[in-house]
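In this supplementary section we document a worked example of the pipeline. Step one takes a protein sequence of length 218 as its only input; no multiple sequence alignment statistics are reported here. Step two produces a three-dimensional model, which step three serialises into structure tokens for compact storage. The input and output of this example are shown verbatim.
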Amino acid sequence: MTYSGEVTVGGPADVHELKDLMITKVAVGPMNNNAYLLRCRATDEQLLIDAANDAHALLGTIGDDGIASVVTTHRHGDHWQALAEVVAATGARTHAGRHDAEGIPVPTDVLVDDGDTVRVGQVELTARHLVGHTPGSIVLVYDDPHGHPHVFTGDCLFPGGVGNTFKDPEAFASLIHDVETKVFDALPDETWVYPGHGDDTTLGAERPHLPEWRARGW
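The serialised model returned by step three reads:
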């Protein structure tokens, strides 16, 4: 089956099968949050991005193999509603951006800074710190050695624009700058984007609209 990235709350997961990594996307909760389960194909170790809601559904997706770690992309409550229950059930180590960890009510084992490596088995992800949606939002970049990069953007980048900066001009200026310099300038058009809500996109689909986003201010 071809991966589309189109999932609905209560519906089946969608699985993106890469040579070294399997990415399972599932939608959970009243705000249609995306959670992503990453599985290293060489070791079967698993990592969860955003234990957003519905621990029962997430644990069912994780299965009996459990997870070694869970990464919370940012401090907003809709992205960690199931975190305590998932950690209690799996014993997973928790990761979050250094400047958002204090806003997450589950202790963070690993404070993540810009450029840090987050591993799942033999697969390495690079964290980039983007400021604006929250002070400590992180995105995770997987530079697939067999293909194009993949980036998990939390609420920093969506189809059609950057994340909500709550009508704060300084926060918007910071976020659009970080998204441009750390994501668009660093990665090619083929890069697949996995956002915190809704459908996936690519950098190539969004890149032509960057001037429009800057002009509108959101």
